[in-house]
Write a structure and sequence with these properties.
single chain; 284 residues; alpha+beta; Arc Repressor Mutant, subunit A; Chorismate lyase; 2 domains; 6-stranded antiparallel sheet; 3-stranded mixed sheet; 13 strands; 29% helix; 32% strand; globular; DNA binding; WH-like_DNA-bd_sf; DNA-binding
């Protein structure tokens, strides 16, 4: 039976992503330790039943992630990237030290405009009908590598108090506070999703890669919404962490979060974070 070109185009990326994830899991899980040599492209092609092109694309993804190093004439080797993601966020203290994190990382502003948001966003911010909001899309980087894709909505009455240039250089929380906004509480959910083409390009991952997803709405003292954030994170560079303690007595015992006592930096869309060792930090 003849397979049309458009069908092959849909199937091939799926095979590439599957092989990429298989190899990545073996590397991250320790089955392929640092310094070990990967099978050759023909061997990988035969073992996994895919084309050489698929193998090459999967290896390209691993190389972009800094998990492997190709040495012409010698082979492909696993790189030691250190332990854990570049950033660990304290889940129990999500709004702490936001400005510090903004200063510890760099940001790339992708878009900035005033629009009428979709109903779910408008509802979470409690906007009036047809009320506009400032929409911005940013990518935050650490050590020059992207780890988060941030889409924020801020009511126009607040957004007009700062400029596009301000947002490209100053953490959003600092801009809100400069505008006189007092952030009193927030509602937040965390999940997972797959990278679409735009997000994949911005975070330098394959389309369909797994990402951490965070949605948060921040409210002021009067209960009005002042920011709606949808953040997507690379799980190999960012993770949430929570310290917990057992509290209560008898049948009422439960697990309660314990806020960190360290003094790290924090994320413009997360909370208290600790920066884990990075390979570049280990160089003399």
């Amino acid at each position: 039976m003849e397979v049309h070109a458009d069908t092959r185009a849909r199937v091939e990326p799926s095979k590439t992503q599957r092989l990429y994830l298989v190899l990545r899991d073996r590397i991250v899980g320790g089955a392929l330790p640092p310094g070990s040599r990967l099978p050759s492209e023909p061997e990988l092609s035969q073992v996994h039943g895919v084309s050489r092109v698929t193998v090459r694309r999967a290896l390209d993804g691993l190389e972009r992630d800094g998990l492997i190093r190709r040495q012409p004439g010698a082979g492909t080797f696993v790189i030691n990237r250190g332990n854990g993601p570049a950033i660990l966020a304290d889940f129990s203290n999500m709004l702490a030290h936001l400005v510090e994190m903004g200063r510890a990382t760099s940001v790339r502003l992708i878009s900035f405009a005033y629009e009428i948001p979709a109903a779910p966003v408008a509802g979470s911010l409690r906007l009036a009908a047809e009320e506009r909001a400032q929409r911005s899309v940013r990518v935050r980087l650490i050590d020059g590598a992207p780890f988060s894709h941030l889409t924020t909505w801020v009511p126009e009455r607040i957004g007009v108090t700062y400029s596009e240039a301000d947002l490209a250089t100053t953490p959003l929380l600092a801009l809100l506070e400069r505008s006189g906004v007092v952030c009193a509480r927030a509602s937040q959910t965390i999940g997972a999703t797959l990278a679409g083409p735009e997000t994949a390009g911005a975070l330098d991952v394959e389309v369909g890669s797994a990402l951490l997803s965070l949605t948060r709405t921040v409210f002021d003292e009067t209960g009005r919404g002042v920011e709606h954030l949808h953040a997507l994170y690379r799980p190999d560079r960012y993770a949430f962490q929570m310290e917990m303690t057992r509290t209560g007595r008898d049948g009422a015992r439960r697990w309660s979060p314990v806020a960190t006592t360290t003094k790290p930096s924090a994320e413009d869309g997360s909370g208290t974070v600790r920066r884990a060792p990075h390979p570049g930090d280990l160089q003399p």
